[in-house]
Amino acid sequence: MTGARRTVALVEDHPDGRALVEALLVGRYDVVTYANGPDAVYGCHAFPPDLVLLDLSLPGMSGHDVLAALRKDPGLTGVPIVAFTADATPDVRDSLLAEGFDDHLPKPLARLDDLRELVDRWLGVAPH
Amino acid sequence: MAPRTTSSFDALLALTRDLVLTLDGAGRIRAASLSWTDELGWSPEELRGREYSEFVHPADLARSTFEFTRVLGGDIPFAFTHRWRLRAGGWRSIEWRAMAELESGDVYAVARPHERAESRPGWSAAGAPDDARASHGMLDLLQRVSHEFRTPLHAVLGFTGLVLEDDETVPLVHRRRLGRAQSNARELVETVDDILEWAALESGERPVVKGTADLHELVAAAFARMAPDAAQRGVALLAEVPRALPPVTTDPARLSRVVRHLLRVALRSTQAGRVVVRVATDPVTGTPWSIAVDLGPAFPGPVWAATGAAPDALAFGPGIGLLVTRALCDRLGHSLRLGSNPASAMVATIGFAAGAARRWA
């Protein structure tokens, strides 16, 4: 692969959740992690990623508020934002897409490749 | 002497227990609530006229400026945490919500120290809750429990999956053991979801959703979902479903959950190396649909009599699975019958009563 590696921003308050995504994407993408919403809003503004994986249940500032803030940042126009959530409500996907998320990936992952394939798909990268 | 006048806002600043500030567009404090004295030691007079940046921890200043600028730009109120200087020395984390009055450019900010207990949504603030509030509160609690279970299970399944991806260095015996760990973790996820589903139905929060289901597709989807566990246990999943079958009226998502639960019971108990699902005309109601799942070895009648145990208890065990499965079937207007087949397997049959179709209309 040529050129700079693409960057995935992960907003996740659970440390093992962050470590897992880093392990799943290592060698394929650069992963920048944020443990809370305000850090993510600030960090994504200062260092725009190519894709954001956003947990919804975060301390202080919810994932919904983070989404709203990121959508208002002109520097992040066109950056896909994917809800990555342990919410098991049956119609959660529809409501998240209606809210403005580009995609939804439930936790736990049904297959580890679900995450890799989702990131590949959104970043236009051929499957590894 | 003229009577002293107090504006509503002044009264609010005097009475509120939250930390309230108003600031001009340059970040200079215009007014502060009396609560600052109790919480951080600063009197409103000491704060007035000074820039908020004087009180913010140096490491948090750049972030604070960024957030303040966003609020001035008319952004939504949000929670933001930074550290404020205590008058007596030291720092305290404060969580802010703020918004700007666009005409004047003034900023209104409300904060609370992190140590203060917060009310939890979904819980009654005072008094005994009525039944509806109690049900909603229970559902809210279970949703939180579900999230709390699913988050660590995500890590358990993910990290064990990563180890299993390494074909070359993990011995077969360890792969099998990790597979069992994964299978049990997935079962726990499903169990938590079952409980949540049941609570949602009981509370009326998510009522039954009328629809139709193609039983061929429904069984195939259930098999696909259960395939990893079946493979891990070395059990084949077999279906006998007529191709030309009219769709059945049901809540498809809930019916799928019931079928998956029966498959889980069957995977646990089968000794035949296979689980068979048969869709056929219901011998009891005569409708075109019934879903029969072989659950495993049947116990002879004398065994039931000797133990005093009901056949469903023998099949499902003492867990909550049967409770949830029966409740779902009941709410869907379907029946759940237990019996045995000539091959001495216990069979659970979901029946679609003819009357149920009219109830949906």
Notable traits:
heterodimer; A: 128 residues; alpha/beta; B: 361 residues; alpha+beta; five-stranded antiparallel sheet; five-stranded mixed sheet; disordered C terminus
Written overview of the protein:
The complex is a heterodimer of chains A (128) and B (361). Chain A is 39% helix and 18% strand. Chain A is built from five helices and five strands; from the N terminus they run βαβαβαβαβα. Chain B is α+β, with helices and mostly antiparallel strands. Chain B is built from twelve helices and twelve strands. In chain B, the strands form three sheets. In chain B, strands 2-1-5-4-3 form a five-stranded antiparallel beta sheet. The chains are: A alpha/beta (128), B alpha+beta (361). Chain A binds chain B through residues 14, 16-17, 20, 23-24, 36-38, 42, 45, 57, 60-61, 65, 68-69, 72, 86-90, 107-109, 112, and chain B through 63, 66-67, 70, 75-76, 78-81, 95, 143, 146-147, 150-159, 161-162, 165, 185-186, 189, 192-193, 196-197, 206, 253.
List the helices and strands and how they pair.
The complex is a heterodimer of chains A (128) and B (361).
Chain A: E1 7-11, H1 15-25, E2 30-34, H2 37-46, E3 51-54, H3 63-72, E4 81-85, H4 92-99, E5 103-106, H5 112-122
Parallel strand pairs in A: 1-2, 1-3, 3-4, 4-5
Helix pairs in contact in A: 2-3
Chain B: H1 8-15, E1 19-23, E2 29-32, H2 35-40, H3 44-47, H4 61-72, E3 80-85, E4 91-100, E5 107-113, H5 131-165, H6 172-203, E6 211-213, H7 215-233, E7 236-240, E8 248-250, H8 252-269, E9 274-279, E10 290-297, H9 301-307, H10 311-316, H11 321-332, E11 334-340, E12 345-352, H12 354-360
Please, what is the oligomeric state?
A: heterodimer
Order of strands, main sheet of chain A, comes to 2-1-3-4-5
Q: What is the tally of beta strands of chain A? A: 5
Shape of chain B: elongated
